[in-house]
Specification:
Porin, 15% helix, alpha+beta, disordered N terminus
Length: 238
């Protein structure tokens, strides 16, 4: 039952991804209060898939929206949806390509595994009085697109070919995410941080030990927090 609930939730998010970003920009000031911060999260991501010979991380960018909900002084629940997110691994080897059963090309080039995901973190966050915060908790992902991409640049001719392999991967991923960051203003304001994610579910259906992992640098920007009349709340206040 939980699996189907998550599937329906993530599918709904996917179908409305563009409208959610627009809603966040238009109505963010209506959603912010002393105990709730709403805004956009974005940043750079370096991802990898364990269990393959390839060990070069794939660089991508993430974008989504978040809710930072205060439950106790200094304790928060951080959640939301990353609606623009890619994970994978770069520089696949010949052995990796043989396992993936993808077409190869005579011209020199590189191959990478890319997966587009919706990501839902549910993290416990603790904010220190010096504005540094720590967060940790589970993260759920749904892969809705997957492909092996060949790229070549020879004699000023750029080639990019995708071979889709969604049927070869497990669409659901569950893992643990941990992070640390800094809030630029007292309580509500832009934050930046770094987080690490490690998946517990095999990426490929027919290869054990293939787990997603990533390191991200992220920025959080509250939408309309200043306009809504919110005042800074000391981190040690009830």
């Amino acid at each position: 039952m939980i699996k189907y609930f998550l599937l329906l939730t993530l599918m709904f998010v996917g179908f409305n991804a563009q409208s959610q970003v627009l809603i966040s920009l238009l109505f963010g000031d209506k959603l912010n209060s002393d105990d709730l911060e709403f805004g956009l999260e974005g940043g750079a991501n370096l991802s990898d898939v364990t269990g393959l010979e390839a060990d070069k991380r794939l660089p991508t960018f993430n974008l989504g929206f978040y809710f930072d909900i205060r439950v106790k002084p200094q304790w928060y629940i951080y959640t939301g949806v990353m609606i623009k997110s890619k994970v994978g691994v770069d520089e696949l080897t010949d052995k990796d390509l043989d396992f993936l059963q993808v077409a190869t090309y005579p011209e020199a080039g590189s191959y990478s595994q890319v997966m587009k995901n919706f990501l839902v973190p549910i993290l416990a966050k603790y904010k220190l009085k010096n504005r540094i915060y720590f967060e940790a908790g589970p993260q759920v992902g749904l892969a809705y697109k997957s492909w092996v991409e060949y790229q070549s640049d020879i004699d000023d001719r750029d080639a990019r070919i995708r071979e889709y392999n969604k049927d070869a991967i497990n669409r659901f991923d569950v893992g643990i995410s941990t992070g640390v960051g800094y809030t630029l203003m007292n309580n509500m304001g832009m934050t930046f941080g770094i987080k690490y994610y490690h998946g517990f579910v095999d990426v490929y259906k027919n290869k054990a030990g293939t787990k997603n992992n990533s390191v991200s640098i992220k920025f959080n920007i509250p939408i309309g927090a200043g306009k809504s009349g919110n005042k800074d709340v000391p981190l040690n206040s009830p």
